[in-house]
Amino acid sequence: SISAGEILKGYFKAEYEIKDKGFFNPVTTADYASNEYIEHELRNKFPDYGWLSEETVDSDDRLSKERVWVVDPLDGTKEFIEGVPQFVVSIALVENGKPVLGVLHNPLTGETFTAASGLGAQLNGEPIQASLTTKLADAVIYNSRSETRRGEWQPFNGHFKALLPIGSVAYKLGLVAANKAERFATL
Questions:
Q1: Which pairs count as long-range contacts for 93-97, CB under 8 Å and 24+ apart, including other chains?
Q2: What pTM was computed for the model?
């Protein structure tokens, strides 16, 4: 995922094409370039594994595979387009329907989140653990930048220690796993 991150870094704030996959669901040349690199690398090294990616047409072939790569080559495309460094390459390995490995890499901040079944999670090689805070009044909550822009979180001001809009769902989940905030919530 670090090499795919370098591909994204090369496109960041450079020229690339933006298309629309659906209602405000953009996709860029960078998404496709990252996806192509990851797919080439993983499928060549693990030819018997299945493949499921946000940027590849799905195939029923993966359903018969014991192990399947699940990839989002650029989670946080809107942030990428806006020049906000809150996006990641997201790669997971699922074995017999259960996740066993996960990697998130933010190429601009240099953060690499990893987790493996039975081995715990790490941020840049250091062990991490999610917050144990249970009181929402003491919790920092990461929320959607889009929902915040639309004013949807206004009624909740004062209910939490802080509401912080962050891009990329996968990035927010990695940050919460690393105890940078207590929760991620979306309306």
A1: 93/49, 93/67, 93/68, 93/69, 94/67, 94/68, 94/69, 94/70, 95/66, 95/67, 96/66
A2: 0.85
